[in-house]
Amino acid sequence: SQQGEEDPQALSIQEGENATMNCSYKTSINNLQWYRQNSGRGLVHLILIRSNEREKHSGRLRVTLDTSKKSSSLLITASRAADTASYFCAAPRDDKIIFGKGTRLHILP
Amino acid sequence: GAVVSQHPSRVICKSGTSVKIECRSLDFQATTMFWYRQFPKQSLMLMATSNEGSKATYEQGVEKDKFLINHASLTLSTLTVTSAHPEDSSFYICSAVSDRSSKPQHFGDGTRLSIL
Hints:
The complex is a heterodimer.
Chain A: E1 4-7, E2 10-14, E3 19-25, E4 31-37, E5 43-50, E6 55-58, E7 61-66, E8 71-76, E9 85-93, E10 96-99, E11 103-108
Chain B: E1 4-7, E2 10-13, E3 19-25, E4 32-38, E5 44-51, E6 57-58, E7 67-73, E8 76-81, E9 90-97, E10 106-107, E11 111-115
Parallel strand pairs in B: 2-11
Antiparallel strand pairs in B: 1-3, 3-8, 4-5, 4-9, 5-6, 7-8, 9-10, 9-11
């Protein structure tokens, strides 16, 4: 079963706008991770937020974590065409990392 | 940064052929490697966890005899799809970590397997 569930499943926005993706998970976690996947490629780790953190920034990325609601969000500010990709949240479970279904983000020129 | 190389990137072969996919960690020692399968526009489905020098741990529903995994060294794991059939066509991705804590995984670029 999946540990993370992202929404929306797909998102199209104009270049320059902000994109927000949400993730909900089921069990307690030590950290939550966000990855990006360009079409036909492997995944690239973007950011990890620990369970005792509420917000974390990395460049144009901002991740929040609400452990009481078992949810996280990824915000990409000032989107660019190169941000077009699928974004997955992932949460550790036992010795594995379980990925959500992902959000397909499309940046319109 | 940590680099994982996966080879080949694309395979097209006839039904009944066995196909081997390699996953190498180029600049770190990978105590654990993971093999995933991904269908179009779907998430990654974990197939098995591979630890150097020991047998792989397969997820429920994954056939051990169908998907042979070998992790002979700290930098190489292989996945062999035996007697592949069209339903085995998929995108296979490996990842590696340097320890078994819940640190980020480093992914290969995937292998697109097409069985005719």
